[in-house]
Amino acid sequence: MTKNYKRPELILMCVQQTCDAAEQEQDQALAVPRDLQRTALIFGIGAVVVASAAAWFHARGVVKPIRDLTDASGRIAAGALDDPIIVTRDDEVGTLARSFEAMRVRLKASREQQQRWEKELEERVRQRTKELERRNREQAALNSIAATVSGSLELETIMSASLDRVLDIMQADAGSILLADDHDGGLSTGVQRGLASDSDQGCLTAPGNDCLCGQAIRKGEAILVEDVGRYPGQLQATCPAQGFASMAVVPLRAKDRPLGVILVASRRPHQLSPPDMELLAAIGNTVGVAVENARLHGELREKEEVRTHLLNRVISAQEEERKRIARELHDESAQVLATLLVEIGTAEEIMPATAKRARDILSRVKTGATRALTEMRQMILDLRPSALDDLGLVAAVQWYAKTRLEQAGMRMRLKVAGSQQRLPAAMETALFRIAQEAINNVAKHAGASNVGIRLEFTGTSVSLVVEDDGQGFDMKAVAESKDKSRGLGLLGMRERAALLGGKATIESQSGRGTRVAVEIPVEEHNGQR
């Protein structure tokens, strides 16, 4: 039983040994392929590592320049054109890099040129703006001067206001306006500021050839002294003593005729500069025209005053002569005619009834003498109505209008407004003569049916209106008529009103009647009767 039991174990051991031997043979058989596989794996991994390293180095050599080009293009796009693009390759990437570098150079040059243009444009704009500002200031100054000189026609007022404005504009310390004499050409002080006396001004206008003002007038040009200390002649010795360091002289001109100069002085050197001279020259022209206008206005006013004085004397003489003639006619000629009529009546009474022819002659003589006496009395009243002296303006106008217009078959109405008062004799005479002329014109020329007269008294004026419904006349035709006698009556009415500071207005149209209106202020004439 025991022998049978160990036999399978032996079999198992044999099998085990056989398997081990077989496995050993198999391992020995597979060892070479495994070694080959391991070697191939090692070489494969090495090859991959080498290939990867080669690929990394190759990629780095291609990608970095492209990345550098990308960064450079970004900087160029951002406007950073100062950094150059460095080119180290000769392949396509190098060609692209060189193209980018050329583009950067051109863009940088273009930008620099644009910046230069912009700076030049900015400088031009700045200069133009500065010029416009200067011209605006000059124009404002000229407008200010024009407004100043246009506010008056009085020479003294114009010179004072102009000099004050010029000194303010130029920021100067002293100045003067000197006027040239039309006869000898000498200069006389019109107005001055900042100069204690004419002797102080003498230092500014040194005598002889050094006189700046004389040079300015002779040359017709503005003269600038930016630094008196460097100016030759007497100015160097005298002006610093007065404290003046710079000055300018500008001629005043009108119609190419020298009228004088404006002199401006400052205690600071170079306070007055060449750019100021153009403005001063323009101011000189403006002030020159204003001075000429003021002179002409003054001359015209003087002539008008002389004319008014002479006209007033002529009218006064006329009135005195009217009075004298009226008095002589009343005292002599009218008395002679009245005596003649009495004697004719006496002759008729004592003449025999049979002297028929002689009676007829006396009758005709008496009729003629009566008519002559009537006309003479009317003439006396026309020359100087007693009602004007005795009863005043209203009564005189009413009497004259009624007498003159009713004779012509016209209806007259007189209206008086306000509180009647006696006026100064000259005013009553002037108003009566104006009314007399208007009434005579209506009676002679109007062919009117109705005539209205209105006298109005106020506290400050008296007005007279004479209006008719007649045929009227063409005022333009009268004004343009070659017959100088036409319109003299209208002119006389205007002149009489103007002599008393009033105004006469005449309105008329053909077929629409005529209206004469006069208004005279009374305040300044009160108490002159």
Automatic annotation (TrEMBL):
InterPro entries linked:
GAF, GAF-like_dom_sf, HAMP_dom, HATPase_C_sf, HATPase_dom, His_kinase_dom, Sensor_HK_TwoCompSys, Sig_transdc_His_kin-like_C
Q: Which cofactor does it need?
A: [4Fe-4S] cluster
Reactions catalysed: ATP + protein L-histidine = ADP + protein N-phospho-L-histidine
| SMART domains registered for this protein in UniProt | GAF, HAMP, HATPase_c
Name the residues that span the membrane. 40-59
Q: Does the keyword Cell cycle apply?
A: no
Entry-linked PROSITE patterns:
HAMP, HIS_KIN
Q: What is this protein called?
A: Oxygen sensor histidine kinase NreB
